[in-house]
Amino acid sequence: QVQLVESGGGSVQAGGSLRLSCAASGDTYMSNAMGWFRQAPGKEREGVAGIDTRGGVTYYADSVKGRFTISQDKAKNTVYLQMNSLKPEDTAMYYCAAGPVLSTLRSGVVNYWGQGTQVTVSS
């Protein structure tokens, strides 16, 4: 089992920044990929960014490229999502996710989910 605990959400004006954190605990050796998904009201959950925790390879959704950065602190088993130049359309519940490999994580194959943290961007 892997437990994921997110933090760092909140409300910000357009153009602002937020940093989300996801601390993993438990059998983390079973999850070689971690990432962030988001779901806005009335919309499907979508992948935002992911990272291979072994080698550091990353991916980003086109909608966030150049604005969001995913990173990790291996010593703390923590993954971060730095979100800059936020837009109102970034408003959503953000979920941390863990899976066996990055290639399937980005396709939505997730073994563990966090509880979610709300991000609200006002215009």
Would you kindly provide a written description of the structure presented here, covering whatever features stand out?
- The chain is mainly beta and 123 residues long.
- It has one helix and eleven strands; from the N terminus they run E-E-E-E-E-E-E-E-E-H-E-E.
- It has one helix spanning 102-105; strands spanning 2-7, 10-13, 18-26, 33-39, 46-52, 58-60, 68-73, 78-83, 92-99, 112-113, 117-122.
- The strands form two sheets. Strands 2, 4, 5, 6, 9, 10 and 11 form a seven-stranded mixed beta sheet that branches. A four-stranded antiparallel beta sheet has the order 1-3-8-7, with no helix packed on it.
- A hairpin with a 4-residue loop joins strand 7 (68-73) and strand 8 (78-83).
- The radius of gyration is 13 Å and the shape is globular.
- It starts with a strand and ends with a strand.
Strand content: over 45%
Low-confidence stretches: none
Task: Note the overall shape.
Answer: globular
SSE sequence, one letter per element: EEEEEEEEEHEE
**Care to count the β-strands?**
11
Mean pLDDT, all residues: 95
Largest sheet: 7 strands, mixed
Query: How many distinct helices?
Result: 1
Distance between the termini: 40 Å
Helix content: under 10%
C-alpha-based Rg, rounded: 13 Å
SS-based class: mainly beta
